[in-house]
UniProtKB/TrEMBL annotation:
<keyword id="KW-0067">ATP-binding</keyword>
<dbReference type="GO" id="GO:0003677">
    <property type="term" value="F:DNA binding"/>
</dbReference>
<dbReference type="InterPro" id="IPR041664">
    <property type="entry name" value="AAA_16"/>
</dbReference>
<protein>
    <submittedName>
        <fullName>LuxR family transcriptional regulator</fullName>
    </submittedName>
</protein>
<dbReference type="GO" id="GO:0005524">
    <property type="term" value="F:ATP binding"/>
</dbReference>
<dbReference type="GO" id="GO:0006355">
    <property type="term" value="P:regulation of DNA-templated transcription"/>
</dbReference>
<feature type="domain" description="HTH luxR-type">
    <location>
        <begin position="843"/>
        <end position="908"/>
    </location>
</feature>
<dbReference type="InterPro" id="IPR027417">
    <property type="entry name" value="P-loop_NTPase"/>
</dbReference>
<dbReference type="InterPro" id="IPR000792">
    <property type="entry name" value="Tscrpt_reg_LuxR_C"/>
</dbReference>
<dbReference type="GO" id="GO:0004016">
    <property type="term" value="F:adenylate cyclase activity"/>
</dbReference>
<dbReference type="InterPro" id="IPR016032">
    <property type="entry name" value="Sig_transdc_resp-reg_C-effctor"/>
</dbReference>
<dbReference type="InterPro" id="IPR036388">
    <property type="entry name" value="WH-like_DNA-bd_sf"/>
</dbReference>
<dbReference type="Pfam" id="PF13191">
    <property type="entry name" value="AAA_16"/>
</dbReference>
<keyword id="KW-0547">Nucleotide-binding</keyword>
<dbReference type="GO" id="GO:0005737">
    <property type="term" value="C:cytoplasm"/>
</dbReference>
<dbReference type="Pfam" id="PF00196">
    <property type="entry name" value="GerE"/>
</dbReference>
<dbReference type="InterPro" id="IPR011990">
    <property type="entry name" value="TPR-like_helical_dom_sf"/>
</dbReference>
Length: 910
């Protein structure tokens, strides 16, 4: 069920509804329609009535065949009156009588509800079964009627075509369109099947091979047996899959056969003009042939004058059947055409040069393409070209350098390290070795090993010491400054950054002095006295880098700056979007995806919206999970996500995510395993009431803090809160408060933590003083912690008998925790009860404010659909979809689609 969680949840909500519902499941063959239905049925109680009928290609001539098949599948059919069954099968009776008999059978077999009636593969169903399906929708009772079909096989003459239109007019139809698996879903599928996450390359290769079709993916896995998953990328197709794909070609004439063979060799995306040149067809002939191939569903138009096979494996099956000489001839023709027209599609040129055996042309295309694709922000494409060239010239410094950098930008850290080491070994000069070391310094940090980073930085300093004032030395200064900035050694970071700025300006190297500014500003914002200057420096660097087209530096500057800018959440969100735009132009995967979504989650936390923060991280993890490419293993967001789950009180899910973090722990995960992960284990054990285990984890946390000196801004506060909730002695928790040493946040966080300790120790006047000091600085504490500070003050005032002042503190906490949940809100509600306060008016509206169609649109928006995707899913125009979205925002009092997603999630959990 990978990639089908949202669809399954939608169907389960329909089953639980009291009124009858209709759901239409559409999708291509092998996409998982039947699997989804079976998973839905498997989750029902054994007593729930189910009718599940299957149409077959030959049923068009057998009236009511789908109903009869459903009756056979029902364990209640033995109780049916035989006369009623004859009423359906007796051809001498009128069609109305037979439909009425069928409806009575459905009513009897699905009462009492809730129940499910499924007509599968309606594109093959006889017209009588289709007519009966429509009438079933009119029956009373808690019944979910599901129809599955293949949209591509519904012609205007098919009885189902009119049915879909009529159902949409008369009922609220829940259209569930099953799409192909995304790359992340494909990776998760592979991980679930094999027990380990695949590499990015393997996941991408198999995703491209199968097009994300679950059936093809599963068949490939079956054919692999127990072999290493990475070998599956090059294994031949299983015979049953290859045979099924080749059957699509049975009705092609000789001319069409030659066209599809040529298209198969030309690549995944085939330009019209190139196909015309290789096949020798004129424009009109080729248009007619391609129109017929598209109509048959064999090929699709993927862009302006560009075509692809609907299933990538069809292309593969065709190529496998061709003679080697035939393939080489087609590659040769394609290459000559591309070279004669001066094509700048260097990846395509290199592909055909390799296929034609012209390796010098391949290397030349690779060299040219490297810089083009890096400039376009396509590092993975550049890496593929570099590796293609390195197959011929394995020690080429230019190819190694570009390949290593491309792998780093794409987030393929193992590949980047291997290529970086080869680059350094192949380098013939100090300047070349220094350039290689600069990347290896950064990679030391990316893999989570500050020790490795510092070792590489020391080697870099030794390498450049004999050099004069040359560009390699200037770039090295910036890299060394970055190494100190990343380890919070502000003084040295600023000193080396100033050296980079000076030498960069002297040598007229904008990339160097801009990098120096980014490192300097990033270091300065880490301590209170330098924040204003750091913000100014980063702001200047971001603007100047944008003007110079230095997108990577612009992205890094904005990433370290966006939530320090003047203004509020709206301004910060706009700055975060700018950061993402810069990162995408640079092709920097970790900032464009992982950091971006984590930034959105952090902004939601800063606005006090826990559900929105969780929704952002859920979205991020769907894109990221299962891939061995991020610096923190397969779950980049796991620590943050677990912390928010603990906030929300979702202990089971927090436990699951935390176990995954522990399982993936390695040397590359040292800092998190030493501090954050044990802290989360302590917090979870406390909330679960496992006090002795909590004490063990607490000892681990304190030992780690003493060794690493690492504490988080809210680290002590969260641990103290959890420890007090579990009943730990106050003296056991004092060392946590004493461990706070963040120079920028020391005072306010120390006041909050010391206030908690003082309250637990019974020193209420001191606790009240500290709580009031902490909450008096609203810009430093997050809304949820500030709300907890107010509640702490309220408890102290309540104990002192000052009820009015205690109520004021509770009222101050209410707006701060209005969009929060979990233990903080539980404390708020407890204090409301003790002080005789009613619950505040709920913000926003409930389900009743939305029409059924708007509720369906809101649910789809929570899946991340665009207006165009909404329109396609619901068979409405994009303009109508936009009107629905606008109405939902207005009725719920919300401002963004992300807030709608958070609202949907909150309603589902309530």
């Amino acid at each position: 069920m990978v990639g089908r969680d949202d669809e399954l949840r939608r169907l389960r909500r329909l089953v639980d509804a009291s009124e009858p519902s209709v759901a239409m499941l559409g999708g291509e063959p092998g996409i998982g329609k039947s699997r989804l239905v079976q998973e839905l049925i498997a989750g029902l109680p054994d007593t729930a009535p189910v009718l599940d009928g299957q149409a077959d290609p030959g049923t068009l001539s057998r009236p009511f065949e789908v109903l009869l098949d459903a009756i056979d599948s029902s364990n209640r059919s033995a109780a049916l009156d035989p006369e009623l069954l004859r009423g359906v099968t007796d051809a001498s009776r009128s069609m109305i009588d037979r439909i009425q008999a069928g409806l009575e059978i459905v009513r009897l077999l699905t009462t009492p509800g809730p129940s499910i009636v499924v007509f599968e593969d309606l594109h093959w169903a006889d017209s009588e079964s289709v007519a009966l399906f429509e009438r079933i929708a009119e029956l009373d009772g808690g019944r979910l009627l599901i129809g599955t079909y293949r949209p591509d096989e519904i012609t205007r003459r098919h009885p189902l075509a009119d049915l879909l239109t009529r159902l949409e007019r008369r009922y609220t139809v829940n259209n569930v369109r099953l799409e192909r698996l995304t790359l992340a879903d494909t990776s998760t599928f592979l991980k679930a099947a094999t027990g380990r996450p695949p590499t990015y390359r393997t996941a991408l290769s198999l995703h491209n091979r199968t097009g994300g079709n679950p059936f093809f993916l599963e068949e490939l896995l079956k054919s692999n047996g127990d072999a290493d998953l990475d070998t599956l990328c090059d294994r031949p197709l299983p015979w049953n899959v290859a045979e099924a794909l080749r059957r699509q070609l049975d009705d092609l004439d000789a001319g069409e056969q030659r066209i599809v063979e040529a298209a198969a060799v030309l690549g995944r995306k085939v330009p019209f003009d190139l196909l015309a040149a290789v096949t020798g067809h004129d424009e009109n002939e080729l248009i007619d042939a391609l129109r017929d191939l598209v109509r048959r569903g064999l090929m699709v138009e993927t862009g302006e004058d560009e075509f692809s096979f609907r299933h990538a494996l069809t292309r593969e099956a065709l190529v496998d059947e061709m003679l080697g000489r035939q393939r080489r001839r087609l590659h040769e023709l394609a290459l000559e055409t591309l070279l004669s027209t001066g094509s700048r599609d260097y990846a395509l040129v290199a592909h055909h040069a390799k296929g034609a055996g012209r390796y010098l042309d391949m290397v030349e295309a690779a060299r040219r393409g490297l810089h083009v694709y890096m400039g376009m922000g396509s590092p993975y494409q550049a890496l593929q070209l570099a590796e293609m060239g390195l197959d011929e010239l394995p020690d080429d410094v230019e190819l190694l350098a570009c390949g290593a950098r491309a792998a780093w930008l794409a987030g393929l850290l193992d590949d980047a390290q291997e290529l970086g080491r080869r680059w350094r070994a192949a380098a013939g000069t100090r300047e070349e070795r220094a350039d290689a070391l600069r990347l290896l310094v950064r990679l030391g940090w990316e893999i989570g090993s500050s020790g490795t980073m510092q070792e590489r930085a020391a080697e870099l300093r030794a390498e450049i010491e004999p050099l004069g004032d040359v560009p390699a030395k200037a770039y090295a200064y910036a890299a060394i400054a970055q190494s100190y900035m990343l380890t919070d050694d502000t003084e040295r970071a600023v000193a080396w950054a100033d050296k980079a700025i000076a030498l960069g300006e002297q040598l007229d190297l904008p990339g160097v002095w801009l990098a120096g500014k980014v490192e300097k500003g990033s270091a300065l914002v880490n301590f209170v006295a330098g924040v204003d200057e750091g913000v100014k420096v980063l702001n200047e660097a971001a603007q100047q880098a944008e003007q110079a087209g230095e997108w990577l530096l612009a992205a890094r500057a904005m990433n370290n700056l966006y939530n320090l800018l003047p203004g509020g959440p709206a301004d910060w969100a706009a700055a975060l979007e700018r950061m993402r735009s810069f990162a995408e132009k640079a092709g920097f995967e970790s900032l464009a995806v992982a950091s971006y979504f984590q930034g959105r989650a952090r902004l939601a936390v800063q606005q006090g919206n826990l559900a929105a923060a969780l929704a952002e991280l859920e979205s991020a993890r769907r894109r990221d999970r299962g891939l061995l490419r991020t610096r923190n293993g397969s779950d980049y967001h796991g620590v943050f996500f677990t912390g928010l789950l603990l906030e929300a009180g979702d202990l089971d899910k927090a436990d699951t995510v935390l176990r995954g973090l522990i399982e993936q722990s390695s040397d590359a995960y040292t800092m998190l395993t030493q501090t954050s992960v044990p802290g989360l284990q302590f917090h979870l054990a406390c909330r679960q009431g496992r006090v002795e285990q909590a004490r063990e984890h607490l000892r681990t946390v304190l030992d780690a803090v003493r060794v690493t000196g690492v504490t988080g801004r809210d680290f002590a506060h969260d641990l103290i809160s959890a420890g007090l909730a579990a009943g730990l002695d106050v003296d056991e928790l004092r060392p946590i408060a004493a461990a706070i040493d963040d120079p920028f946040f020391d005072d306010v966080w120390r006041w909050l933590a010391d206030g908690q300790i003082a309250e637990a120790a019974g020193n209420l006047p001191e606790a009240l003083r500290l709580y009031r000091k902490a909450t008096a600085e609203p810009t430093l504490l997050l809304p949820n912690q500030r709300g907890t500070g107010h509640l702490g003050a309220a408890r102290c005032l309540l104990a002192a008998g000052d009820l009015d002042a205690a109520r004021e503190q509770v009222r101050a906490a209410e707006p701060l925790l209005a969009q929060w949940s979990g233990w903080r809100v539980a404390e708020l509600n407890a204090l409301r009860g003790r002080l005789g306060l009613g619950a505040p008016a709920a913000a926003g509206a409930g389900d009743e404010a939305l029409t059924p169609r708007e509720r369906e649109v809101a649910t789809l928006l929570a899946e991340g659909l665009t207006n165009a995707e909404l329109a396609r899913r619901l068979y409405i125009s994009p303009r109508t979809a936009a009107v629905h979205v606008s109405n939902i925002l207005s009725k719920l009092g919300l401002e963004s689609r992300t807030q709608i997603a958070a609202w949907v999630k909150a309603r589902a959990q309530s």
